[in-house]
Amino acid sequence: MLVAVLHDFNQLELCDIPVPEPGTGDIVVKIVSCGICATDYKAVKGIRRNVDFPYIAGHEASGIVAAVGAGVEHWHEGDEVIISPSGFCGVCHHCRVGNTHYCENAFTMGGDGPRRILPGAFAEYMLTRGECLYHKPPGVSFDAGALTEPLSGAWKGVIHYSEMKLGDDVVIIGVGGIGLLCMMVARAAGAGRLIAIDPSAYARGNALELGATNVVDPSAEDAKQRVYEIMPNGPDLVVEAAGPIAAVELMLSLRRRGTKWNVFGITTHEKFELDGGEAHFMEARMDASFGTNPLAMQNAIRLMERGLVNPERIVSHHFPLSKIHAAMEAMASPERNKVMVHP
Q1: Which residue segments constitute the domains of the chain, with CATH numbers given?
Q2: Is residue 29 within 8 Å of 64, Cβ to Cβ?
């Protein structure tokens, strides 16, 4: 099978290797669609350094079951499936209380985070486990299905953790792929005013098309002043989905008493300051969200199946796996959103 193997930073090579054989409890999936996450791109370019080589990236995937191993009861050849990259043991303390993304024995396929990293979906076939699969509803495309994992993260952050309510005024800082998904979830959940903040005109245009009531360019105007002109009482929820520390600092500045704020986008170890007394009297509640879990995956599938959110709308580029290098270069374009690879 054709596979894209990262041998070292900036050394991504297309190789021909044997199709994996399923062992007991294993499932082989023929990959149809796989999104490129920013973490994949950062690994290829050496921006993210916690990579062990050789490495097969790609963790936003959907496909068709090609083979099942002994002991597999609930999956059959030909099943159209959505793959969660996050594997868990099911027996540690965190798993038993429902926080499978905290699993002490976690693994990921083609992703980032746990110590155990298995081959991902930048390949024609991928080896996985039954607990990592979900049936793809007939009305959901393979592209949309591949984006279930990031959509589930948006649901978990906005709805499950930050508990957005019907009519809440919401600000999303950074409307690339994950920011747009957070915004679309907020729109579907009944956000009142919904402001997207981004210095990119391309990103702001996408935000307006996908449900923002207002957009703000922080490079051309005072973002806080503009937000409070639109939301005189201040935002109920602010989601930072951008990544830079400056976005976190902007989020802090937008709070008023009772504002909920979610540190969603930043993954680098940078510091910001909090005034203890202000934090106490303001009662603004901080949340954060990373990764996914079965509850979030199932709710993301429900959003798609019910027609409430269609993540395929954020796809801007398509490439065959044989053009993976061109796909990675597209990731550097200022006018791109989600880039999809099709093995």
Answers
A1: 2-136+310-342 (3.90.180.10), 153-288 (3.40.50.720)
A2: yes
Do the beta carbons of residue 111 and residue 35 sit within 8 Å?
no
Question: Can you tell me the distance from the alpha carbon of 154 to that of 163, in angstroms, rounded to the nearest whole number?
Answer: 12
Beta carbons of 257 and 192 less than 8 angstroms apart: no
For residue 15, give the H/E element and its range.
strand 11-16
Per residue in 291-318, pLDDT (tens digit) is: 999 999 999 999 999 999 999 999 999 9
Q: Please classify residue 217 by burial: count the beta carbons closer than 10 Å to its beta carbon, then call 0-12 exposed, 13-18 middle and 19+ buried.
A: middle
Length of the chain: 343
Peptide bond into 54 cis (omega under 30): yes
pLDDT band at 268 (very low <50, low <70, confident <90, very high): confident
> What band does 101 get if pLDDT is binned at 50, 70 and 90?
very high
| CB proximity list for 92: less than 8 A, separation 6 or greater | 103, 104, 105
Decide if 27 contacts 332 (C-beta within 8 A).
Answer: no
What pTM was estimated for this model as a whole?
0.96
The predicted pLDDT at position 49 comes to: 87
123 to 11, 110, 274, 281, 300: CA distances (angstroms): 16, 10, 45, 52, 25
Among residues 73, 57, 3, 64, the alpha carbon closest in space to that of 28 is found at 64
130-176, pLDDT tens digit by residue?
Answer: 999 999 999 999 999 999 999 999 999 999 999 999 999 999 999 99
> Token match 């999809």: residue?
340
> Percentage helix, strand, coil, to 5, in the chain?
30, 25, 45
Distant-in-sequence, close-in-space partners of 280: CB < 8 Å, separation ≥ 6: none
pLDDT at 129: 95
